[in-house]
Amino acid sequence: MFGDYSLGDLGSIFAMQGFAGLILFSVYVLMALGLAIIFGQMGVINMAHGEFMILGAYMTWLCSEFFAAYLPSLFGIYFFVAMALAFVASGSLGMLVEWALIKRLYKRPLDTLLATWGLSLILQQAYRSIFGPREVGVNLPDWMLGSLQVTDSIEVPINGLLVMALTILITIAVYLLIFRSRWGQQVRAVVQNRVMAGAVGIDTEKVDRLTFGLGCGIAGIAGSAFTMIGSTGPTSGQLYIVDTFLVVVFGGAASLFGTIASAFTISQTQSTLEFFLSGSMAKVITLLAVVAILMLRPQGLFTLKVRR
Amino acid sequence: MKLAFLSRRDVLFLAVLAFLLLVVFPFALDGFRLNLVGKYLTYAFAALGLVLCWGYGGILSLGQGVFFALGGYGMAMYLKLEASSVENTKIQSTPGIPDFMDWNQITELPYFWQPFHSFPLTLILILVVPALFAFVIGAAMFKRRVSGVYFAIITQAIAAIMTILIIGQQGYTGGVNGITDLRTLHGWDIRTDSAKFILYFVNAVLLLGVILIAMFVRDSKLGRILVAMRDKEDRVRFSGYSVANFQIFVFCLAGVFAAIGGAMFTLQVGFMSPSLTGIVPSIEMVIYTAVGGRFSLFGAVYGTLAVSFARTSLSESFPQLWLLGLGALFIATVLFFPNGLAGIWRDYVQPTVDRVLKLRGKPSDPAWEAGKSSTAPAE
């Protein structure tokens, strides 16, 4: 499949596809970060994670429509407002869900998988009733549409760079929050020993609710980024849930660095292969490779060395 | 034949189910509805496999649709080849190959289709291929002590890969439409009403047979080891049992059950498509099992029937409500009835029935008691 291209062409293709994969990478990282917090820290398998992402995407779409209709002068910056709104909306829904559903299931992790699957069906139907069954797309402001000309044959899309930069910022913020802040210390304490954490005065219920909300909120931001690579429909989120779980497992649960590395590997492999093969075969090969590696190394790429 | 492993209660349940499937449904329902019930029952095969695998063995597989597909596509490939005889397909540019291959400019039958010319070989492959596939997955995962959530996620990924592959490789698999326009089985037209009637009975008898096999496994020493493994895997391992081998066996068995269901689905419905085998149908099989009661073989059958009936009637009259209903049903089952229909029966109906019939069977099933304790806090 490489035979028809010269070495220089191949270099350009890899670079171009690599940059084109940046948004996919950002979506994967943000989705997987949220999932890794919920799954790695709380042991809850959130099958509705894709639907939280799509809520963020719908918020972004609403924002773009609202700014286009009422505040056209501020249209250039609506995307940042939309991201914040997506975070708040998905995060609040997440806290509500945690309060109503998840908190009763902490002792049965496999059952959270079934219950959140039920939740995802309900959310999909809700989106269909509220926003309609048709897929919607957002308009980006002009300044985000261009691309930077790096060399003659390599162009870098600006929106990709922007989303990438935001993703890095959010990742650093999450890292600081979990590993450096007082609250993160409480989260980790609850994970390690719920009963003891309660005994030393940590409000474990509140910590759980905020953790779940944070994970879902980050998924909402992923939804904002997602609007740049796909159109938003009621079932769009379901397509991403398998990939995202693989990203988390492949990276090694509970390892933030592993999550990022595996999101990068998977999104870049897929994006590069897509140039040479059909989209579906690229996906099959990527997923197969991940599953094969997981069969040989089930603990994932990076693991924390802990005594169990 | 003396079935020593059955308790009196099991015999009674089996008789009731057999009466329902073989007498009540065929007399009470018209041909269309009976065919529909037959279609639902094919999913019960997969649900039965999940009871052994998930309820007893503690291995949650979200990829049972893969095995359903392997069985279903095996049967569909045989039927398709029979329907694509040279006389039937003489208008194609290459006569004698399935129509969708011709549309995709394939001029020669691919090698993996060749064995499906022979009926006996097809029947063998329908059972052997899923078992081998399950063995490979199981051996790779269980020998490395992967279990629980990780196993569930990886089986789900395999279901996703399989679906994308089937849809992507249109020329070899029929793509998103699947394999359609199936006509005869070994010269016998499967589209007539009488054929559908007979196939329903074949399906029901096979289902009862699979239940018997599952009961045999459940009540054997193997079944007890499965339950022990689910609740205290390390203790079983330290007692000298090879945990992985038991897990592989039960996963293969569940896969073969699902494959039988898939093959019967193709025969009764007359087509096979990727929409019946992907992530969503695989999870629905888990739903059937959960609603029926994950520790109960009979519960799996009734759960499948109940959810499918509810789906058909709800989606006929209120199409928007169906997803909401299914989601709510699922959440309610998990939150309030973790043992499903079988749990409700056991807690509320069984005592009365026992008193009336003066049954004194086993006081309790080890799987249930253990199941209760496994919901207690983990240490």
Explain what the structure shows.
The complex is a heterodimer of chains A (308) and B (379). In chain A, 72% of the residues lie in helices and 2% in strands. The termini of chain A are far apart. A two-stranded antiparallel sheet of chain A has the order 1-2. The longest helix of chain A has 36 residues, at 7-42. Chain A has helices spanning 7-42, 49-70, 78-100, 109-131, 142-145, 158-179, 182-192, 194-199, 204-226, 238-251, 256-276, 279-296, and strands spanning 147-149, 155-157. Chain A is built from 12 helices and 2 strands. In chain A, a hairpin with a 5-residue loop joins strand 1 and strand 2. Chain A is mainly α. Chain A has one domain (11-238). Chain B is an all-alpha fold and 379 residues long. Chain B has one domain. Chain B contains 16 helices and 2 strands. Chain B has helices at 8-28, 31-56, 64-83, 99-103, 119-142, 148-168, 170-173, 193-219, 221-231, 233-238, 243-269, 279-292, 297-317, 319-336, 340-357, 366-374, and strands spanning 184-185, 188-189. Chain B has a two-stranded antiparallel ribbon with strand order 1-2. In chain B, strand 1 and strand 2 form a beta hairpin. In chain B, helix 1 packs antiparallel against helix 8. The radius of gyration of chain B is 21 Å and the shape is globular. Chain B starts with 7 loop residues before the first helix and ends in a 5-residue tail after the last helix. The model of chain B is unreliable at 369-379 (pLDDT under 50). Classes of the chains: A mainly alpha (308), B mainly alpha (379). The A-B interface holds A 39, 45, 101, 104-105, 107-111, 113-115, 117-122, 124-126, 128-129, 238, 242, 245-246, 249, 278, 280-281, 283-284, 287-288, 290-291, 294-296, 298 and B 60, 137, 140-141, 144-146, 148-150, 152-154, 156-158, 160-161, 164-165, 167-168, 279-280, 283, 286-287, 290, 320, 323-324, 326-331, 333-335, 338, 375-378.
